[in-house]
């Protein structure tokens, strides 16, 4: 629970201070995840999942990962490479995501 609150605070902090900038849109979820996890942003897989699910349009959808935790898990199963995040990281991210909707 403590970690979930920390992650939620972190994710919400990304949106604060961005001013009028439009969030970067991505054609595919994996593209978004790779940008925030693989390219030196310093985010964990769980934080990268939340960044993309909550703060960026994916294929013109925002929030991108569904209406609840099961939908989020299904979405990520279909749109995120298995090697990108563990099942536990996906579950953690989807729980936080569902609580932010």
Distance from first to last alpha carbon: 17 Å
Q: Uncertain segments of ≥5 residues (pLDDT<50)?
A: 4-12, 14-18
Q: Looking at the structure, what is the overall shape?
A: globular
Proportion of residues in extended strands: under 5%
Query: Element order, helices and strands?
Result: HHHHH
**Residue share in helices?**
55-70%
Specify Rg, calculated over alpha carbons: 12 Å
Mean pLDDT: 86
The domain count comes to 1
Number of helices: 5
Q: What can you see in these coordinates?
A:
The chain is mainly α and 101 residues long. It has one domain. The protein has five helices and no strands. The longest helix is centred in the first third of the chain and has 14 residues, at 2-15. Residues 4-12 and 14-18 have low confidence and may be disordered.
